[in-house]
Structure formats: C-alpha cells, structure tokens
From TrEMBL:
Provenance organism: Abyssobacteria bacterium (strain SURF_5)
Family that this chain belongs to: Belongs to the trehalose phosphatase family.
One annotated GO molecular function: trehalose-phosphatase activity
Pathway of action: Glycan biosynthesis; trehalose biosynthesis
EC id: 3.1.3.12
Protein role: Removes the phosphate from trehalose 6-phosphate to produce free trehalose.
Sorted UniProt keywords: Hydrolase, Magnesium, Metal-binding
Recorded name of the encoding gene: otsB
Catalytic activity: alpha,alpha-trehalose 6-phosphate + H2O = alpha,alpha-trehalose + phosphate
GO annotation terms (biological process): trehalose biosynthetic process
Protein name: Trehalose 6-phosphate phosphatase
C-alpha cells in the first residue's frame, strides 16, 4: 500500500468507517476486482474477491455499489453472486438496484444514431469480434494485439470515428485496452456524486478503480471519501492511495468487512 497524499492514512480512515452511521463502498470491476483478460467475457474476479464481496453485500451495514463501463447484463453473469450489490453500468447511464429495479437515463436520438453508424462501419471492417456494444457507447478492444497492430488500429478508428463523433455529438475516449465512442453527459463521477448526494455528508465512503475512466470518480469523491488506485503498475492519478492487487486489494476489503462487523 502506498499513500499518495500524506493526509490520508488507512488506520484513521477505517476508524471512521467503523464509527459511521452510513457507509458506501464504490467499486470498479475490470482491472480492479478482476484482472484484465484478452477475452473480456472471461474476466472473473481475483480469487477470494467474490467471497468477500458476497459477505459485504449480505452483512448489510455497507451500501456496496459497482460502477462500471460494462453493460450491466454482462457483468451480472461474471459476478455470479447469490445476492447482487447495486450496479451502475455503462459509465453511469444504467442502474440496477439489489431488489431488481432497472433504470436507464434518457438517450438522445442523434447520438444513438451515431452509435448505430459506428457499429455498421465496425462490421464492414471485420472488427465485430473486437467490438462491445452497450446502451450508451461502443467500445473496441485491442488487448492482446502487438504494439504496432494497436497503433494501426487506433489510427484507423480515430480517422473514421472522430468526424462521426463530432457530427453526432459523441465523445471518443481511450481506455486501458481499447477506445470507446460514448454518449456524453454521464460518467463514473456522475454515479459517485449521485450516490453520495443521496446518502449525505456524514457517509464514510471509498471508491476503488484502476483506469483513466475512474479518474472522474476520484475527482468526484474528493473531500467526501477515500479514492484508491488499484493496479499492478503505478500511473499518475488523482487517487489518495495506491493498492497492488490482488493481495493489497483483498486486505482492504477484509479490513472494511472487519470494521463494519457487529463484533468490531
């Protein structure tokens, strides 16, 4: 564990978690709870994570929320939990509550048409196997390719999709392992802000993430909770501390569970 900002110490933080009336544990999935894999449909949680996550969900004192760029329906299959946490998918556009209520934000016709045009182009270029369509975005993955192949694919995508994005009111974002065409207006920071506004200022909260898309969440939780970068190798970040998975991640989750147990 590496403290990136001296004012943040885990001992003090977990004391606050233990004594809090309200708690929120906000978690990214890919790269945070699960290692990246060339096949995104095989990205299962690190060993031990599923069991702790289930205990956190079942124990009750914590509002456990997954905030992901994935389509919720795809993530549910990977989690394979008996009782699901709250899930915000598609960078904050979707929401699934633990009791099964599903919501999706209002999406404008112009950007949706842009995603459809992009999907047609991807199909025509033979890239469908690398594409991940979602309700408010379209991701193209290049994990597993060689650096030269990645650069060629990146240039091809940007040359074709940058003009389309501008014309249709979309944004083009690179992430760890690909590039994504997204409808603007929501991101992981939006989800974090919405949750913490609902819960109030006395909430003990933490957000754990790994990717550049998690930086929006790190900024949103600033001065309202702890932001945690979870990745094997360090990169510049707005996060308060850095954990190396899986050992330090598991330790953090266990300490949260211990801090919120009735016997603490």
């Amino acid at each position: 564990m590496n403290v990136l900002k001296p004012e943040y110490q885990l001992e003090t933080f977990f004391e606050k978690v233990a004594g809090a009336q309200k708690r929120a544990l906000l978690l990214d999935y890919d790269g945070t709870l699960a290692p990246f894999t060339p096949n995104r449909n095989e990205a299962l949680p690190y060993p031990g994570v599923k069991e702790i996550l289930q205990k956190l969900v079942d124990s009750g004192p914590t509002r456990v929320i997954l905030i992901t760029g994935r389509w919720i329906r795809d993530l549910v299959e990977l989690l394979d939990l008996e009782r699901l946490p709250e899930i915000w998918g598609s960078h904050g556009w979707e929401k699934l509550t633990p009791d099964g209520r599903y919501e999706i934000g209002r999406l404008e016709e112009g950007p949706l048409q842009g995603l459809a045009e992009a999907d047609e182009w991807i199909e025509s270029e033979g890239l469908a196997a690398r594409a991940e369509p979602k309700p408010a975005s379209l991701a193209i993955h290049w994990r597993g390719l060689q650096p030269r192949e990645i650069e060629q694919l990146r240039r091809k995508i940007e040359d074709r999709l940058s003009p389309l994005a501008k014309r249709r009111g979309l944004n083009l974002h690179e992430f760890d392992g690909g590039i994504e065409l997204r409808i603007p207006g929501r991101d992981k920071g939006y989800a974090v802000t919405t949750v913490l506004d609902e819960m109030g200022k006395d909430t003990a909260a933490a957000y754990l993430g790994d990717d550049y898309t998690d930086e929006d969440a790190f900024v949103a939780i600033r001065r309202r909770g702890l932001s945690v970068l979870v990745r094997k190798e360090f990169r510049p970040t707005e996060a308060d501390i850095w954990l190396v998975p899986p050992e330090e991640l598991l330790d953090f989750l266990k300490r949260w569970l211990q801090a919120t147990s009735p016997d603490h």
